[in-house]
Amino acid sequence: xxxxxxxxxxxxxxxxxxxxxxxxxxxxxxxxxxxxxxxxxxxxxxxxxxxxxxxxxxxxxxxxxxxxxxxxxxxxxxxxxxxxxxxxxxxxxxxxxxxxxxxxxxxxxxxxxxxxxxxxxxxxxxxxxxxxxxxxxxxxxxxxxxxxxxxxxxxxxxxxxxxxxxxxxxxxxxxxxxxxxxxxxxxxxxxxxxxxxxxxxxxxxxxxxxxxxxxxxxxxxxxxxxxxxxxxxxxxxxxxxxxxxxxxxxxxxxxxxxxxxxxxxxxxxxxxxxxxxxxxxxxxxxxxxxxxxxxxxxxxxxxxxxxxxxxxxxxxxxxxxxxxxxxxxxxxxxxxxxxxxxxxxxxxxxxxxxxxxxxxxxxxxxxxxxxxxxxxxxxxxxxxxxxxxxxxxxxxxxxxxxxxxxxxxxxxxxxxxxxxxxxxxxxxxxxxxxxxxxxxxxxxxxxxxxxxxxxxxxxxxxxxxxxxxxxxxxxxxxxxxxxxxxxxxxxxxxx
Length: 495
Description:
Elements: H1 2-7, H2 9-29, H3 36-44, H4 58-70, H5 74-99, H6 103-111, H7 117-126, H8 129-149, H9 153-167, H10 175-185, H11 188-191, H12 199-219, H13 221-232, H14 240-270, H15 274-279, H16 283-306, H17 313-316, H18 323-334, H19 341-365, H20 380-389, E1 397-400, H21 403-412, E2 418-420, E3 437-441, H22 453-460, E4 466-476, E5 485-494
Parallel strand pairs: 1-2, 1-3
Antiparallel strand pairs: 3-5, 4-5
Helix pairs in contact: 2-5, 2-19, 3-21, 4-5, 5-6, 5-8, 6-18, 6-19, 7-19, 8-9, 9-12, 10-16, 14-16, 14-18, 14-19, 16-18, 20-21
């Protein structure tokens, strides 16, 4: 395998392709109960909109197209995610082979991305918009470095496309090109590229890609920022000093969670020359190193002056996507690394390639015994099928208490329009106004959950709608302990 990886770039792509195919097969073999982001994606795939919620819409748009092509299925969800992750790794491999003279180092730099838990495990477990962020970051640096090495109108345009896609993938992406712009201005070898007229093409394409969603964002600013601001701030912190201390501690923890394991595992092939590696570098390693550092600096400024007190590691991890390549560039610049570096690191990568799908599998089968029940442990399909069978007539519309539940309803009954209370502009139209409406809700699986107030308000807003029946269903968790039940409630309304 090592000889093949050294001789042909296609061998690396085949290895990565096999890994992501394995992850697809694992997800398809596990219960079809959808995770949080999976359910949200399948729910939103009913609509094509310029904006949806507090996350930008790029992943939703692509998912909508895949669902239109393949139907609302688990295959539609897992195929898109793994194709996008595979493309991200392929772009990083292309970037590594462009910058590094050593093929061994390029292979190590690509496979070392697996050492980032947020990119290897969390992205497979249940991330969507962050997967789009990983893809757009990989595309941005691929396009940027090609622009710097082989400046052409096409690469300037591709860089603009990457910036536009990144911005409508996740809003915090904008920190990456901003940090890179500062890094470029500090490197004399690259500074002149900032004064090339073709940079106007980059800006024009980026603006053109962002503009449709940007106009929606301006009209829905409170809706688009409310959840994100709520996640990044803590109203319980009463003093500025306390907020800054908590924020900087959170930033430090997120930085370590994103980078520490990668650095430690790269000591396996490169550990003996650490001192020489730290002293070495070139214009490319300085560019990448400064880009990562300036992202952290900007986040620190947001903590100190912007009131940010909480930063999740998965928000920061894509900013460190170039860390393995940065280290490989410094190692190559030092001129000293073991000839068998790839021999030492490949087993590490292969072990991770086995552990990730294994962990994704065991977390379902061991839930309720050694770990708490997972979202995939909830018997959505059986419950939804039983509730629909209890009705004398198939409903024309289903209203649920949350988007994850709505996505699971759509997976089990793809012919039914599904809405979520409180209602929004994206509430689907019933199949027929004369057919009954079914309400389904839950309270974290607890027995006898009360009908949520937003659902009550929706019912009251519908003229002539009256309750015809109400029921509960309790089913055992999938692969759970005997006697452990998950509870749903449902009601049927008609005119």
